[in-house]
Specification:
By secondary structure, the chain is an alpha/beta fold. It is 34% helix and 24% strand. It has one domain (2-173): Rossmann fold (3-Layer(aba) Sandwich), CATH 3.40.50. Bound molecules: flavin mononucleotide.
Length: 174
């Protein structure tokens, strides 16, 4: 019975170095409704926890020059033992488009590739209009593969972007 209850909720998994992605995850959970979301720091979870959800939201900031946030880096290899067929996933990413415009949100693109490879269905792509960057692994077929956030330069847009994105993904994830 407990298992069925968990399956109805969205599993939100985030990795955050200085708190920006954690903060955005909180806004996303609030916007969806906290009763419908279980939010986890990826640092603290086992692969089985993630595999327990049919609907997932995955968030990472990008570090180094286009690399995964450290806790996602540690978790990433574990995804190879997953069959993610039947799961629907929405991504969000945090990055700094002005200082790291050659690698803006690359981590979101790296995770997207891995989840696709493991069989997941992805929802929640996002337009590139309104961003200034030169290159991003998170752009596929002219759109970001998930919600693009930038707490360093466009923090004032975070709430409205989350609002619009949640409206888009909510009907698909439930
Ligand atoms: C040393 C350093 C490297 C960074 N590298 C990138 C990068 O390659 N691409 C990017 O989009 N943002 C990059 N950023 C920006 C962070 O991703 C951004 O500040 C983000 O909001 C941090 O989120 P967090 O606190 O959740 O980890 C970098 C920031 C720092 C300080």
């Amino acid at each position: 019975m407990k298992q069925i209850d968990i399956m109805k909720k969205i599993g939100l998994f985030w990795g955050s170095e200085t708190g920006n992605t954690e903060h955005a995850a909180g806004i996303i959970a609030d916007t969806i409704g906290n009763d419908f979301v279980d939010s986890y720091n990826i640092r603290d979870v086992s692969p089985d926890t993630l595999a327990g959800y049919d609907a997932l939201i995955i968030g990472s900031s990008t570090w180094g020059a286009g690399e995964l946030q450290d806790d996602w880096y540690n978790f990433y290899g574990k995804l190879d033992s997953f069959d993610l067929g039947g799961k629907t996933v929405a991504f969000f990413g945090l990055g700094d488009q002005l200082s790291y415009g050659d690698y803006y949100l690359d981590a979101m693109g790296i995770l997207y590739e891995k989840f696709i490879e493991r069989g997941a269905k992805v929802t929640g792509s996002w337009p590139v209009d309104g961003y200034e960057y030169s290159s991003s692994k998170a752009v596929v077929h002219g759109s970001f593969v998930g919600l693009a956030l930038d707490a360093d330069n466009q923090d004032h847009l975070t709430h409205s972007r989350v609002q619009a994105w949640v409206e888009q993904i909510k009907p698909v994830l439930f």
